[in-house]
Specification:
Elements (H helix, E strand, L loop, with lengths): L7 E4 L15 H12 L5 E4 L5 E7 L4 H16 L3 E5 L10 H6 L8
Parallel strand pairs: 3-4
Antiparallel strand pairs: 1-2, 2-3
Amino acid sequence: RTGLPDHEIFARLTLAELVDPAATLRGFEREQSMRRLAQSTLEFVVCNKQLEVVAAVIRKAVDAGEMERQRVVQSTLAAAGIRVVTVDTDAMPRHHQVKALVYGETPPEAG
């Protein structure tokens, strides 16, 4: 929050709260898709003041099963045009590095 004071940060949202299933899905298939989306949780979602999504933050996967789930999350978000930022919980970025990380810029040097 300190690194992005002009943004809104939402914790623990699901994919279902961020993206809709394909418009071509109807009935049972649409319901199943919503359930799958609801099972994937994001660490944080960063929005601007107009509540437009800037990026979704996920933590670095630690095992093969989690890596596969994250591939699905990343491809779903990419299809929706949402930037995905992966953070290592053992080496969290400093507050002055957060904005550059979220926007995909070169982070400022520590000083």
